[in-house]
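Help! Submission page says 'invalid entity' but I think these are all valid:
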Amino acid sequence: KAGVTQTPRYLIKTRGQQVTLSCSPISGHRSVSWYQQTPGQGLQFLFEYFSETQRNKGNFPGRFSGRQFSNSRSEMNVSTLELGDSALYLCASSSGYEGGNTIYFGEGSWLTVV
Amino acid sequence: AQSVTQLGSHVSVSEGALVLLRCNYSSSVPPYLFWYVQYPNQGLQLLLKYTTGATLVKGINGFEAEFKKSETSFHLTKPSAHMSDAAEYFCAVSVAGANSKLTFGKGITLSVRP
């Protein structure tokens, strides 16, 4: 069974641009979450989508947005990029149902903003 | 809101020695607790999790953790360290109603000396 797949793995963007990251969850999983990992702030929850609806949201500005498609694939978008947005963005998937369900992570997308 | 404290950012042990990584959590409702490992340039891999039931949880690669409600702790142990255990370890918490929203600690880097 394929794991969580994220594309692209590495990208470099210029300040002010926007970026879209893609995530394909494990087959059958309906919940997709996104996390930002930086050396200074560690791992922070961005948002979670379940059945195409945002179910939980972290404390990030509105420049960070996401969506989920009917096949559970998800994208996150960051507009008006700032240098501080440079980070590893991790996608995670789970069934989204039972409490404490196992959450599986992808390899991440490394974003560098210059 | 939930929080996780991982004291110290770096632990160094000799190969064959006991590994003990500490994790304390704060939650006003029963928590679900997780330990993840991250190898360089990779995503997060689940080592083990506690949801309900038995408080001693066994995971992959010989790791185990014990949930102690009275101490609000979920320390990770391994009887004998191996060189391949060198990585960064994250403790995380979630709660019912926000199953897929993990709150992570800052992480601990484990070094294993030959």
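Support: the input was valid. A stray whitespace character was the problem, and the output above is from the cleaned input. Chain B has a mean pLDDT of 94.
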